[in-house]
UniProtKB/TrEMBL annotation:
This is Alanine dehydrogenase. It holds the Pfam family AlaDh_PNT_N. Keywords: NAD, Nucleotide-binding, Oxidoreductase. It comes from the Bacteria. The keyword Oxidoreductase applies. One of its GO terms (biological process) is L-alanine catabolic process. It comes from Flavobacterium agrisoli. The lineage of its organism: Bacteria, Pseudomonadati, Bacteroidota, Flavobacteriia, Flavobacteriales. It is an enzyme of class 1 (oxidoreductase).
Amino acid sequence: MIIGVPKEIKNNENRVALTPAGVAEMKKNGHEVYVQTAAGEGSGFSDQEYIAYGAQILGTIEEVYAVAEMIMKVKEPIASEYNLIRKDQLVFTYFHFASSEPLTHAMIKSEAICLAYETVEKADRSLPLLIPMSEVAGRMSIQEGAKYLEKPLKGRGILLGGVPGVPPAKVLVLGGGIVGTQAAKMAAGLGAQVTIMDVSLPRLRQLSEIMPANVMTIISNSYNIQNAIKEADLIIGAVLIPGAKAPNLITREMLKDMRPGTVLVDVAVDQGGCIETCEPTTHENPTFIIDDIVHYCVANMPGAVPYTSTLALTNATLPYAVQLANKGWKKACAENAELKKGLNIANGKIVYKEVAEAWNLPFDEELVLEPNF
């Protein structure tokens, strides 16, 4: 198969979907790899390294899309890429269709095969290609939140861990999944007073057993959230419903109950966000203020630490990419239920229910259920 790796063009996105080591693996399996020039530079990989392991370098993104049977990316295609994607071309990347109606319609129109990292799912319902970036984003949410609590950045002017004689900041984490767990660990390690909320009592029991003493678990409901936000200095939105929009747990009206300078970090923003007032921002302009509340809503947080993020991501994606290249998407998805769950749009039809529901579009259930498509 011919693999194409374009340079990411989303604002300040420095990750790359395939490392030189990944090129070597693809070559070992008999595939051709074309990499756009400078695609790996942001993550610390030069064109020369790719060439050394067997990749061919192309000068433009148009050339990469034109030659490739499978496109490997990190972030969803943006508008300038829509017309480069063609019928029957396999695109393997994060899509987050439920947060972008224009992208959904563009990929339906392209009749390409859209296999989304974020909905590849194991039998235990874990999301192996989302977990590495969730770990990075969870840890980063505290790092960024602590920074924006500083007064020159319009925060409350509070040190996350406090000092002897002065109480630490209060951190509220909404969601006890991978992002929430990593955020809580980081905040607790810095000495903050941490509260994790989740709708699952079994999950809260697990967290209670593994977290340090300065982490408290509370069941998530509107009453408890309403009370907790009044005291929180830093609030982390860490809610995920696979393939679907995140629910709004904090509304615009609730901002008035927070103290001026409170910082909101909505890690779920690439799935629509769990804070009503959050809109996607970039690393270039990461924050905005509404009602004296600082909103940090960068949709590609791990892109700021691309060396770590690229290695963590490609460690997880490469085995699946090799399967797709070796067998083609139809056979690979027929034989691997995890990959099959990653299919979101195929040949102009939505085959992932939550994406169809997000935009009230037809869902092609027959294609999803057919075992040998």
